[in-house]
């Protein structure tokens, strides 16, 4: 047999806890991304100078109104850790965030907006300048079309160096970033500005395509079909006719739900206008919120059970001789209490009760149940016989500070795990 150090043998659940937390909150991202994610290659061959970009949407950084601090901490840490791990392992040329960067930007003031924007930069910004991060606005950043404020549009454009329609070229591949909320076609100020910019870009694309840009300065030479990036998807009744992804679509319960034009998707007119004027190579969008499953919470549940067993074992075996500071029994007691309580060298235990003596236990601070033959860990309790009134006697126990601290630590851990499990369900 191996000689296990006494410290390890005694505190092995703590070492297990540290290892589980370290794996679930750090190493698992490198393992998952490193073993299951890679850049797609054409015909089993990868081109060294191929364009590689990340497309990320709907980070929904929680705000002050609807965000609980623990839920906010959990979400932001997981997004930060997965994003940084992916950057380290895959090294993209650029990163695009396709809207809904924040959850409450649509009704924030100047101070709150800058607070959310700074938080976004701290999580997803590139301190080294590579890869370049490009963002565009979603409805949770500016609001839906009817609620878009000129001030908020100005804040977003100034803070992220963005306009309603932008062109970004990476390795000679043009990307056109479009603000979806400005494509309602109702003649509003933002719609007119966006349509004017799209028309100007269309002229540049046409002249580059025809090779006749003598009178126009084109950003698209040599000509390549652009890729449109926006927050709302193009017009479609629902996702039923879209190509299925075996990893997600079979689990999507909302696949057949109807998309409302100008709310969950562009209108049919706006879609036709974009496709006609820009003739894109592809269109990449956000908004789609697909469900996912996680096994991490299951590991934490197993860990909580292990900790519970260890805490009870630690209290019973290690602190048994120190847990009582004072033991007092009343002088007036019946044969029932003599049968109920036994004083042993290692402490006190409840003996098995016969059916003739049903009991109930009331605790200071709340009810509790006791199993026959098991120790009870309460700061104070009274044992009464249901057949004797008034009580024939009572037992008053006071516990050491170490026991109270261990009990409070476990209760706090259990409450946090319960909250994390509830949050993981939606």
Automatic annotation (TrEMBL):
Residue ranges of domain Calcineurin-like phosphoesterase in the record: 51-235
Keyword Plastid applies: no
Stored Pfam families: Metallophos (PF00149)
Gene3D superfamilies: 3.60.21.10
Example GO biological process: GPI anchor biosynthetic process
SUPFAM superfamilies xref list: Metallo-dependent phosphatases (SSF56300)
Descriptive protein name: Metallophosphoesterase 1 homolog (inferred by orthology to a C. elegans protein)
Organism: Nippostrongylus brasiliensis
